[in-house]
From TrEMBL:
It comes from the Archaea. The keyword Lipoprotein does not apply. This is 5,10-methylenetetrahydrofolate reductase. Pathway: One-carbon metabolism; tetrahydrofolate interconversion. Keywords: FAD, Flavoprotein, Oxidoreductase. The keyword Oxidoreductase applies. Its cofactor is FAD. One of its GO terms (biological process) is methionine metabolic process. GO terms for molecular function: methylenetetrahydrofolate reductase [NAD(P)H] activity.
Length: 320
């Protein structure tokens, strides 16, 4: 078996992760349908693993959970076998798997605890715990800080292997630095940001987060910056659904000027420029915060462009 890269140790050294969109389907109880799902997962594992095999500097494979909410905040799950997909690709590449879990909809402590135990038993020891979509609903499950604490408690009481806990960071949300501090105190080892298309919000946030951690005498968590290429105006609809803000100036540069067919190239250049600005700002304003990079596969058709972006960031990380 290929030895795994230790993701937790990599958090101090510019980790590079790749986020794969999960399979959109659901179990039906019909054996023929469900077996077809498993075969589709196995085919996707081999296809993506082959595509990513050219990037030895890749640290981990991340798979999100896709959940929509109705007007009452009730969930509709749009992804399936996320752990199988992440574990399968990671095993093929000799990397570690990262799994996202929306904790807000958990019905009980036992449900959440069982999910943690099952995930750890499958050899997945890196998890990103995610809250609900809005503060206006009363969710059945724990908030993110509570979920962090429960995970830490289970690690201790159930003698689990060390689990690396991640949370989500929304740079444009008011009071985010304070939230990050509390989540760090409750157990977060790293944060993954919402997709970034400009650097002003995140640089201000990182500076404030670093200052709060210093005052609280807390070691800041690693912040993994997320980027994704855009290939057409149609991608804007998905960004809007995900709540990602694309500044007008950046949108015009990437999607509305010059040749549309070259939009993905301008998107990649914009991402590289944003990262460079953040890393330059880090030197003077938040040197104590470790940074990482996450390249996201926004849609299935965006995969070639995501690989192009990954290639550029991979070159950068290998030169560090």
């Amino acid at each position: 078996m290929i030895s795994m890269v230790n993701f937790k140790e990599s958090l101090n050294n510019l980790p590079l992760i790749f986020t794969v969109i999960p399979l959109r389907d659901s179990k039906t109880g019909d054996p023929e349908h469900d077996n077809r799902i498993v075969k589709n997962i196995e085919a996707r594992i081999m296809d993506i693993s082959k595509t990513l095999s050219d990037f030895p500097g890749l640290t981990a494979i991340n798979v999100p959970e896709l959940v929509e909410e109705n007007h009452e905040g009730k969930p509709r799950y749009n992804s399936i076998f996320t752990r199988k997909l992440a574990r399968g690709i990671a095993d093929q590449l000799g990397k570690e798997a990262i799994i996202n879990k929306v904790v807000a909809h958990m019905e009980s402590y036992d449900e959440f605890a069982n999910w943690i135990l099952e995930t750890e038993s499958q050899g997945i020891r890196n998890i990103v715990l995610v809250g609900g979509n809005t503060r206006h609903h009363r969710y059945t499950g724990p908030n993110v800080s509570e979920a962090n604490l429960i995970t830490k408690h289970l690690m201790k009481t159930k003698n689990l292997n060390d689990i690396t806990i991640g949370n989500i960071c929304l740079p444009e949300r008011g009071g985010e630095a304070r939230r990050m501090l509390y989540k760090t105190i409750s157990g977060a080892d790293f944060f993954t940001t919402q997709m970034l298309f400009e650097g002003d919000h995140i640089t201000h946030l990182l500076k404030e987060y670093g200052e709060l951690c210093s005052k609280a005498q807390v070691n800041p968590a690693t912040v993994i910056l997320s980027f994704a290429p855009l290939k057409s105006v149609a991608d804007l609809n998905l960004l809007d659904f995900l709540g990602v803000d694309l500044p007008d100036e950046t949108k015009d540069y990437i999607l509305e000027n010059e040749q549309v067919s070259k939009a993905y190239k301008r998107s990649i250049k914009n991402a590289l420029d944003v990262l460079k600005a953040i890393m330059n700002d880090k030197i003077d304003n938040y040197p104590e915060i470790n940074i990482g990079i996450n390249v996201e596969q926004l849609t299935k058709s965006n995969m070639p462009y995501s690989i192009e972006m990954l290639k550029e960031f991979h070159i950068m990380t290998q030169k560090k």
